Amino acid sequence: MRYLALIAALALAACGSQKELRPAQGQSLPPAPFGAEAPRTADQLIAPDAQARPARSDEVLTESQDRPADRFDLPPQ
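^ that's the sequence the OP posted. Answer follows.
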C-alpha cells in the first residue's frame, strides 16, 4: 500500500502546470541577434535547432563497395 501511495505521489508531482514562459522577475530576454528584426520569444529560445537535433537519415546502402587492402591489418601473434 505504501508503494502505491508513493507511485501516485510521484505521478502527481510529475504533472506540473503548463503556462507561458516568461523571464525571471527583474530580468529580460536576450537582445536580438545581429541582423534580426525582432528579439526572439521564450518559446523560440528553447526550441532546439537543426544542429542540436539533426534529422534522421534512413538512406539504405545502395551500392556495396569492396574494402581496400589494409597493410596494417595483421593477424594476432
